[in-house]
Amino acid sequence: WSKFIEILTYKAKWYGRDLIKIDTFFASSQLCNNCGYKNEEVKDLKIRNWKCSECGKVHDRDINASKNILDEGLKMQKAS
């Protein structure tokens, strides 16, 4: 994994792009991308879909996580 990150970092620099690393422990699949509610039950990897108890939005675990990772990366980029 570290070799992949090393190559990705090199290529990003080569092409003048930013590489933003999200914290490994960022709760990307547990956060509702719609309202920000954190659902601790989603830690169980067997749960593939879940409904937010705050706003009612139904999430696919992986799609929701990818949206949260994108949002977090954009926040980090804006802050730097």
SSE-based structural type: mainly alpha
User: What helical percentage do the residues reach?
Assistant: 40-55%
Amino- and carboxy-terminal Cα gap: 25 Å
Instruction: Give the beta-strand count.
Output: 2
Strand order of the largest sheet: 1-2
One letter per element, helices H and strands E, the order comes to: HEEH
Question: What general outline do the C-alpha atoms trace?
Answer: elongated
Summed over residues and divided by their number, the pLDDT gives a mean of: 94
Domain Cas12f1-like TNB: 1-69
Pfam families: Cas12f1-like_TNB (PF07282)
Protein name: Transposase DNA-binding domain-containing protein
InterPro entries: Cas12f1-like_TNB (IPR010095)
Q: Please, could you describe this protein's structure?
A:
It holds the Pfam family Cas12f1-like_TNB. It comes from Halanaerobium congolense. With 80 residues, the chain is mostly helical. The chain has one domain (21-79). The protein has 2 helices and 2 strands; from the N terminus they run αββα. The chain has helices at 2-14, 61-79, and strands spanning 49-51, 58-60. A two-stranded antiparallel sheet has the order 1-2. The mean pLDDT is 94.
Task: Give a brief description.
The chain is mostly helical.
Outline the fold blueprint.
Layout (H helix, E strand, L loop, with lengths): L1 H13 L34 E3 L6 E3 H19 L1
Antiparallel strand pairs: 1-2
